[in-house]
Design a protein that fits this description.
By secondary structure, this protein is mainly β. The chain has two helices and ten strands; from the N terminus they run H-H-E-E-E-E-E-E-E-E-E-E. It has a single domain, classed as Beta Barrel (Lipocalin), CATH 2.40.128.20. It is 9% helix and 47% strand.
Length: 181
């Protein structure tokens, strides 16, 4: 009987995954990084000065860092006017998609909380995320973020909204991200 108990314990512990370790793809890196889209947002990692596309207006600074062995990316935005926001981009290796949750200090205001999902890759070497937050009128609208690498390691972020289901788009934010260091 003692041998049986030890054998069952050995079998159960052999199949147990340590919850503090990332899921491994077998290639020595987490499944989220090994997936073909797992490193899709690496171009956006860094410390950034954010300006208008022509460089005349400073919008603020953004610090974008890798988290959880690359399965998530944390964004910490500090606007020139004192506005703050953070987002967590995370990669779901089960369906091969990135998602984003954007949060500000007041999630009751329009734009204070947004959820978006990767909908397109390869757009000028970048990506497009889209979601349907609630506007000031209480109705949902389309919200689209395009992140695209620019020459010399810069990034363009273009945020657009549509109230006619994507027939027309209005630019909400169009900025150049230049490395601080």
């Amino acid at each position: 009987m003692r041998l049986f108990i030890i054998s069952v314990a050995a079998i159960l512990s052999a199949g147990t995954v340590n919850a503090t370790e990332p899921a491994d793809s077998g290639a020595g890196e987490p499944a989220c990084r090994a997936h073909e889209y797992g490193k899709l947002l690496d171009f956006w990692l860094g410390d950034w000065k954010v300006t208008s596309m022509d460089g005349t207006t400073v919008f603020g600074e953004n610090h974008v860092t890798m988290a959880l062995d690359g399965c998530a990316i944390h964004e910490d935005w500090k606007g020139a006017t004192g506005a703050r926001g953070q987002s967590l981009f995370f990669f779901d290796a089960r369906d091969g998609a990135w998602e984003q949750i954007w949060v500000t200090a007041d999630t009751s205001k329009p734009g204070g909380l947004k959820r978006k999902r990767l909908v397109q890759t390869g757009v000028y070497g970048g990506v497009i995320f889209r979601g349907m937050p609630v506007g000031e009128d209480g109705k949902h609208y389309l919200d689209k973020t395009t992140l695209m690498p620019l020459p010399e390691g810069e990034v363009r972020q273009l945020i657009e909204s549509s109230t006619d289901n994507g027939k027309t788009w209005r630019t909400v934010f169009d900025a150049r991200y230049s490395r601080l260091y």
